[in-house]
Structure formats: structure tokens, C-alpha cells
């Protein structure tokens, strides 16, 4: 099965931007028999069920017309979630300003877990603003796990 991932990303981006939302990710999961096409969207203040439904309806129609996905599939449109994992540079940029927890592969200054506000992503490095007004930077390859943290 040949899936045109870049074409699907471009289609999703057109739909999502037309709705005033941000495209976070497009994933194709599962095997040939029952593949899952997951489109993750976001907006300031959070995504509503109606946002997901509108994007899903438009994506379904567009996928039917352009047919970049051979055979049948399941389309899922969802929000990133409150404590979503972060893995891609785009996610670190998109969620700048949000609280996050990073777990490093190797300790830095005797510490493996860092928590603070994401301050972006530049030149392969995740920037994290710490409580002590210190800005820490970590190579993406240094991070074994990263996720958003719910603010209380």
C-alpha cells in the first residue's frame, strides 16, 4: 500500500487552516486491513467537538475526491490532549508558553527531569524557561520523553 503522506498533510493543512485551527500532526497507523488516519488539531483555548466534526467532514469529502489513500480507512480527528506527549519540533514550537516536563536520556548537572515553560525550538534545541528565570536548552536527541503538564 502506497500512501501519499505529504499529500494528505497538505490536504489536512488546507482544511484546518480554513477553520482557523492549527494542524499539529497527521499519523497513519495500523496495517493494510484497517489503517487509521489520525489528524490532530489545536487552537488557543482548546479544541471543541464541533471543531473536530467540521474538520472530519471536510477531510472525508476531500479524501473521497482526491483519493490519496488506497482502499478503506478510519479517519480520526482529535485534539492534542491536556498532557500530550511532545516528539516533533513543530510541537515544541506550537506549545511555546505551556508548561512541560522533559526527561533526559542522561543527567545534566545531576538531574534528568526538568519542568518549566516551553520557550520554543531552534537549531535542533528545545528551550525551557525554568522557575528560577533560567533558560535551559536541550538537544532534541537528549530528550527521552517530553509532555505537556496540566496547569493547576
List the helices and strands in order.
HEEHEHEEEEE
Q: Which structural class is indicated by helix and strand composition?
A: alpha+beta
The radius of gyration is 18 Å
Binned, the helix content reads 25-40%
The total count of helices amounts to 3
CATH superfamily of the largest domain: RimP-like superfamily, N-terminal
- What is the straight-line distance between the termini? 45 Å
Task: Give the percentage of residues in beta strands.
Answer: 35-45%
**Any idea what the shape is?**
elongated
CATH fold title of the largest domain: GMP Synthetase, Chain A, domain 3
What is the domain tally? Answer: 2
CATH architecture of the largest domain: 2-Layer Sandwich
Classified by CATH, the class of the largest domain is: Alpha Beta
Any key phrases for this structure?
GMP Synthetase, Chain A, domain 3, 3 helices, three-stranded mixed beta sheet, SH3 type barrels, 38% strand, single chain, alpha+beta, 152 residues
Care to give the gist of this entry?
By secondary structure, this protein is an alpha+beta fold.
SSE blueprint:
Blueprint: H1 5-18, E1 22-29, E2 36-42, H2 49-66, E3 74-78, H3 89-94, E4 99-108, E5 111-122, E6 125-129, E7 135-139, E8 143-148
Parallel strand pairs: 2-3
Antiparallel strand pairs: 1-2, 4-5, 4-8, 5-6, 6-7
Helix pairs in contact: 1-2
Describe the structure.
The chain is 25% helix and 38% strand. Helix 1 crosses helix 2. The longest helix is centred in the middle third of the chain and has 18 residues. The protein is elongated and about 55 Å long. The protein has three helices and eight strands, in the order H-E-E-H-E-H-E-E-E-E-E. The protein folds into two domains: 74 residues, RimP-like superfamily, N-terminal (GMP Synthetase, Chain A, domain 3, 2-Layer Sandwich); 60 residues, Roll (SH3 type barrels), CATH 2.30.30.180. Strand 1 and strand 2 form a beta hairpin. By secondary structure, it is α+β, with helices and mostly antiparallel strands.
Amino acid at each position: 500500500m502506497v500512501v501519499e503522506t505529504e499529500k494528505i498533510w497538505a490536504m489536512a493543512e488546507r482544511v484546518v487552516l480554513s477553520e482557523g485551527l492549527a494542524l499539529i500532526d497527521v499519523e497513519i497507523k495500523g496495517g493494510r486491513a484497517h489503517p487509521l488516519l489520525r489528524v490532530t488539531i489545536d487552537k488557543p483555548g482548546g479544541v471543541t467537538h464541533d471543531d473536530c466534526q467540521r474538520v472530519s467532514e471536510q477531510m472525508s469529502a476531500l479524501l473521497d475526491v482526491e483519493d490519496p489513500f488506497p482502499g478503506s480507512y478510519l479517519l480520526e480527528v482529535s485534539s492534542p490532549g491536556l498532557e500530550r506527549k511532545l516528539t516533533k519540533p513543530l510541537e515544541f514550537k506550537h506549545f511555546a508558553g505551556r508548561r512541560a516536563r522533559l526527561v533526559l536520556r542522561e543527567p545534566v548537572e545531576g538531574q534528568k527531569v526538568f519542568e518549566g515553560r516551553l520557550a520554543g525550538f531552534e537549531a535542533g534545541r528545545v528551550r525551557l524557561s525554568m522557575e528560577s528565570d533560567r533558560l535551559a536548552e536541550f538537544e532534541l536527541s537528549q530528550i527521552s520523553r517530553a509532555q505537556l503538564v496540566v496547569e493547576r
